[in-house]
Amino acid sequence: MLKTERQQMILKIVEQNGKAETNALVKKFNVTEDTIRKDFNSLSNKGLVKRTHGGVMKIQGVLDYDYRLTQDVASKKKIAKVICDYLIQFKTIFIDSGSTNQIIAEELLNKYHGTIITNSPVIALSLSRNKQIKIEIIGGSLNPRTKVILGTKSINEISQLNLECTLLGVSSIDFKMGITYPNNDEATLKTTLIKQSKNIVVAISKEKLETFSTFSAGQLSDVNALYTDETNKKLLKKYKQKIARVISC
């Protein structure tokens, strides 16, 4: 079977099942694991699938922010309660756009008395209820679906900042591949945030661990603290090799 034919069959499997795993395809096509991994990498680099630990999964369309805000609310609130005790030590925090980060911002509302910089109008409006929080919003182009401000203007503004702490919004994080995103514009903004920040803090659901997308923004070593609802001690121990503070909430 030709490589192109095999990869087309892999795409059909992913479309039907939502995912494809290495071990199953090795048996199905009677090829080596290395061959399947190369197929996965080729399809991922073309933006056709999302790479995961042990396989690939179907890339979902960009979900509306309002919808994402209703998903896994209990887990996000659990993370928010724990992470706030860590964040309140910083006088200035950049809160990156994201549904988890918005819930964290709401938890910070009555606990924090400092400066918040954000690229999320939604987060800014939420925090504005506390008059003791100084809020600054990054300029740029607003994506109406994701509620995030992106573009050259926002990157230029962030490049002029020296950030004490950034609560980074993350699409995917993997032990080997680091921090990745499905969109190059988003990845470029995140890269700039990482570069300009003394401390990078990540709050992420367990579903996003051991997954990666096409565009890289940083490595695990760039992260100072990781908060997650993952409870697998073996997996968390692996991440602790590269991240100083890994907290299971």
Automatic annotation (TrEMBL):
Chain coiled-coil ranges = none
Instruction: Tell me the InterPro entries matching this sequence.
Output: Carb_Metab_HTH_regulators (IPR050313), DeoR-like_C (IPR014036), DeoR_HTH (IPR001034), NagB/RpiA_transferase-like (IPR037171), Tscrpt_reg_HTH_DeoR_CS (IPR018356), WH-like_DNA-bd_sf (IPR036388), WH_DNA-bd_sf (IPR036390)
Residues in domain HTH deoR-type? 3-58
Keyword vocabulary terms for this entry: DNA-binding, Transcription, Transcription regulation
Q: Is Nuclease there in the keyword field?
A: no
Q: Which domain of life is it from?
A: Bacteria
Q: Do you know which PROSITE patterns this protein is assigned to?
A: HTH_DEOR_1, HTH_DEOR_2
* Entry keyword annotation includes Transferase: no
The protein in question is named DeoR/GlpR transcriptional regulator
From what organism does this protein derive? Lactobacillus kullabergensis
